[in-house]
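Dear support,

I submitted the protein below through the web form. The confirmation email said the job was done, but the results page showed an empty box. After a refresh the structure appeared. I'm attaching both so you can tell me whether what I see now is the final result or a partial one.
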Amino acid sequence: MTHNSDLVTGMIHPHTYIHPNARLAQNVKIDPFTVIHQDVEIGEGTWIGSNVTIMEGARIGKNCRIFPGAVISAIPQDLKFAGEKTTAEIGDNTTLREFVTVNRGTKERGKTTVGSDCLIQAYTHVAHDCSIGNNCIISNSTQIAGHVVIGDWVIVGGVCAVHQFVQIGSHSFVAGGSLVSKDVPPYIKAVRTPLSYGGVNSVGLKRRGFDLDKINHILDIYRIIYNKGLNTSQALEFIEEELAASDERDEILTFIRESGRGIIKRGTKGASDED
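What the results page shows now:
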């Protein structure tokens, strides 16, 4: 891994600073006025725009696109951080738009991760020790606090604020402008103020190849959780006893049982489209 030959071929602009200890794969293209610190790894085929800062501990995958103004792997905005060696890891084929900030981890988890095939839109902040799955879209100006876990195939609308330690389950959709202070279970839409269950994310599931039987199975699960008048423990017990086992059922049950902050509630009348 070297960048010296790329300077000759024009892949790396001469007005870029790259620390001698940074490790760049072949065919990395870097535009002017970008700074790359030590202990950085960048995979082949990645493009880094101008005025980007890649700081110590960054691990960036193959074929990523990082737009101007982004700052990757700055130290956490956590007063308990004591300079420990941690990382910020970006998967393959992920795009970070203008002025995205991804802080590296603390000793609590050791790393912040953004998965592969994600789109993180402009002005989004991903704080220390977060984990974002694969194929996610995080829309403009979303602010994600520390220790947040977001599953695969999640879409978060613009200008959302996600409270620390919140978990957002896979295949869920969070409406723009939301304050996310409770956990959002998998496969659902989280909408309205305060943030509430808004039905199963059936449109997203269809787009990803879920068949009608599987979507209806998920609907049956959430009707019991949100519409049957049972408390959470009773609903989970009923689901386990009465509904056929499936990967989706078990994922939902495990997510809710392990929820640290509690799941979002059903809204007032009209807040759910799954009556």
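Response: this is the final, complete result; the empty box was a page-load delay. Residues 167 and 258 are 10 Å apart (CA to CA).
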